[in-house]
Amino acid sequence: MQISLRIFSLPKRGNTPGEYEDAFWPAAPLDVDAKRFRFAVADGATETSFAGSWARLLARAYCRDQLSEKKIRKQLPRLRQEWQSSIESASLPWYAEQKLSQGAFATVLGLTLNDGSWDSTAIGDSCLFQVRNGGIITAFPLTRSVEFSNRPALISSNSKNWCGELAQVTRTRGAWEPMDVFYLMTDAIACWFLRSIENGERGIWDGLNDGGDFAQWIESLRDSGQMRNDDVTVLRIETVSPRSRITDGHSLITNEIED
């Protein structure tokens, strides 16, 4: 099967790219043919320390197949140690050290595409939308804009929190057809997206499909009060065919990552 991946991201207004606390994987656009693809977005909770680092670990871990139902309990302790090791050299004041001891928190959403089928795993309010012929046929894990809140389910780098959080892992699966488009979105743009559909608004795809200036489009939504000021991440994945082969010179690769 052939897919095309486009990546859109923007930090909060007033923040630098280095302060961006969302994450995504793969790390670059793709236009490839393979038997299986994995994609993920994650959203680090701003009020926690080093949340962006934790989000990046989770997004990458999903694409390494480390967050599957069979592996997640075994892999999370290793991910927590990797996160801890990555921040040990940071010099922090005492109050930041105390906050750091509570751990970092993030949502994560992953999508796996196989020939003709897909499955998804989510913790929190980053959302997956499957679009066919201009209409949404799947919304996961949230389906209405009113479901978004200031207290989404989060997964923590602190092992003391994991027992309760693992109970909040949700999974779903489905089938896809050639020319279906999947969007993986972090919460701010996902909430706007659902609300716009509920309001019957047209042209909501324009900022993602017309090749325009994504940053300018997002800023216009912020200016008008349609979208709250938060980090924004979108993966746009367009499918071609379960059996198509690339004939335009692209190499045959997969984005699966081995340990």
Structure description:
- The chain is globular and about 45 Å long.
- The strands form two sheets. A six-stranded antiparallel beta sheet has the order 3-1-12-11-7-8. Strands 2, 4, 5, 6, 9 and 10 form a six-stranded antiparallel beta sheet that branches.
- The protein has helices spanning 51-63, 72-87, 94-100, 162-166, 187-198, 206-209, 214-223, and strands at 2-10, 22-25, 30-33, 37-44, 105-114, 117-123, 127-132, 135-140, 155-156, 170-175, 181-185, 232-239.
- It has one domain (2-239): Phosphatase 2c, domain 1 (4-Layer Sandwich), CATH 3.60.40.
- The model is unreliable at 243-259 (pLDDT under 50).
- The chain has seven helices and twelve strands.
- Main β-sheet description: 6 strands, antiparallel
Overall pLDDT: 83
Evaluate the radius of gyration: 18 Å
Structural class: alpha+beta
Q: Which residues sit in consecutive blocks of at least 5 with pLDDT less than 50?
A: 243-259
| Number of strand segments | 12
Distance between the termini: 24 Å
- CATH C-level: Alpha Beta
CATH architecture tag = 4-Layer Sandwich
Content of β-strand = 25-35%
Oligomer: single chain
Provide the succession of SSEs. Answer: EEEEHHHEEEEEHEEHHHE
**What is the CATH topology?**
Phosphatase 2c, domain 1
Which percent bin holds the helix content?
Answer: 25-40%
Q: What is the molecular shape? A: globular
Helix count from the secondary structure assignment? 7
Q: What is the assigned CATH homologous superfamily?
A: PPM-type phosphatase domain
Count up the domains: 1
Instruction: Walk across the major sheet and give the strand order.
Output: 3-1-12-11-7-8
